[in-house]
Amino acid sequence: MHCDPLKLLIEFLNSKGIRPVDLFRTFEQDEQHRVSRRNFIAGLKKAKVPLEDRDLEKVVDRLAGPSGGKLSYQVRKCSIDKQGHLVAH
Predict the structure, then answer these.
(1) Residue from 80, 74, 77 nearest 4 by CA
(2) Among residues 11, 75, 81, 87, which is most buried (max CB within 10 A)?
(3) Dist CA 69 CA 76 (whole Å)
(4) Model's pTM, two decimal places?
């Protein structure tokens, strides 16, 4: 059974009592609510998120959306519904 890497990330954060927005804030460097792909992945590794590199890339691809560049946590507010599906707000 293959699990959704984004769901695994959210579950990991929940288990540690970390809100996703707080995680993003620790990675941002320009105080403009944006994080580069490289800094986001490096930050997840530093936080010891239990995902392989390819899964980290999948998470970033989903969060970055069509722009593919910097991740903006101001517009990427997400949650997981009762069935475990990602819901963007």
Answers:
(1) 80
(2) 11
(3) 13
(4) 0.71
